Give the backbone structure.
Amino acid sequence: MTNQFLLGLIGIPSAGKTTFARKLAKIFEENGHPTVVIGSDDIRNMIPGYNENFDPDREPIIRKITLNIIKDCLTLGFNVINDDLNYYKSMRHNLFEITNTFDTHFLSIFIKIPLEKAIEWNEKRGLPIPNSVIEDVYKKLDEPGDYSWDIPVITLETTDLKDSKMVNSVYSKIISRIKKPIKNEPLITKSKPGKSESLDNLTRKLINRTVSKELHKKFHKQLSLMRKQFLMEVKIEDYNIEEVKEKFSKKILDFIKDHQKEV
């Protein structure tokens, strides 16, 4: 039986995940459990100027690199705390699949704080993240719990993630969990993406299929804003997938028609 684990954090930006992850990892280290904290921000910081010029097309690559580093660390015998947003169910399923391959415990912690508190903390830190990004992730977040593997070991609704007693309590809960046998699943079934993720992927694909690279590059900000506004409209009107395809395709074609002369 192995006590090795991969712990995925779930939560919106500026929820205090990074501070919490480091404090928790330190306790594991001090008690003889080699543990590393790995997050996609570590990869983004390796790319000069990336944070100032965010490129969504690079994000799948960054995610893939992060997952490969997690695999390498598990191979070397480390426990891993994944300090990422993991706001889509599919992101958490990526982690779950890794643990099945390595016969390692998969755990998650849902750090659930009010949107207003995250924005307040972000502003106190000098707005390292645009508030619009926090709001966007908050709206898209697939709350965990639809599958047995996706039920968090604990949900933290406290706004004081630096509290030592709380961190020690989480440590004890994880230790208790990893002492139990791993529940192996003979067949891993891909979980269906949540509605937010499905619509996000669909609208991106419709833009990429319809808009030329030249137009996409020149009007990237306008297209992103158009897509974001449409997704807000979808949420209010509760369109089905076919309605989304029809209505958003028309919006893209209207955009192309209005801007063709500017290319």
Notes: The longest strand covers residues 105-111. Strands lie at 5-10, 35-38, 79-82, 105-111, 154-156. The radius of gyration is 20 Å.
